[in-house]
Amino acid sequence: MNLMTTITGVVLAGGKARRMGGVDKGLLELNGKPLWQHVADALMTQLSHVVVNANRHQEIYQVSGLKVIEDSLADYPGPLAGMLSVMQQEAGEWFLFCPCDTPYIPHDLAARLTHQRKDAPVVWVHDGERDHPTIALVNRAIEPLLLEYLQAGERRVMAFLCVWLAVMRLISAIVKRHL
């Protein structure tokens, strides 16, 4: 698999940030640059096509020149809705999703996840202590299952990955101090 051309990188910045008092986490700065831009830059060193899933402040994200995709489901029901929306609007077969507040993703994340994937339709990061299911390499094949899950009112990412897909591939790709 040629990683650069077969995987679409996605910065997930579509949340409501309820725990942050509504502050758009992706726009918080680290070393003079918005968090989301750190993630996008890291993905662009690994992949030739990167997009942003955002539901607020689209004009700020669009200044980067990257395509910005809004959730197709009403009320922005979480990261799975962002994943679904990107799959509905982008033509790729594989998607590497990373939340906007993970600025220290490894420079070889796409390669690591691809290596661990085997024949699984999805693989996500585990840091040795806990799962990080929104940092995931996902195949388009899960799109119909994901749509059904969301239409049933479900929102939990790990529940979808474990129950609906019954697939779990772990990788120690992120040092826990960077999360």
From TrEMBL:
Biological process annotations from GO: bis(molybdopterin guanine dinucleotide)molybdenum biosynthetic process
Origin superkingdom: Bacteria
Pfam families xrefs: NTP_transf_3
This protein's record includes keyword Hydrolase: no
GO molecular function: GTP binding; metal ion binding; molybdenum cofactor guanylyltransferase activity
Compartments it resides in: Cytoplasm
MobA-like NTP transferase domain ranges (all copies): 9-159
Record Gene3D superfamilies: Spore Coat Polysaccharide Biosynthesis Protein SpsA, Chain A
UniProt KW keywords: Cytoplasm, GTP-binding, Magnesium, Metal-binding, Molybdenum cofactor biosynthesis, Nucleotide-binding, Nucleotidyltransferase, Transferase
Domain text: The N-terminal domain determines nucleotide recognition and specific binding, while the C-terminal domain determines the specific binding to the target protein.
NCBIfam families in alphabetical order: molyb_mobA
General function of this protein: Transfers a GMP moiety from GTP to Mo-molybdopterin (Mo-MPT) cofactor (Moco or molybdenum cofactor) to form Mo-molybdopterin guanine dinucleotide (Mo-MGD) cofactor.
Name of this protein: Molybdenum cofactor guanylyltransferase
Originating organism: Escherichia coli
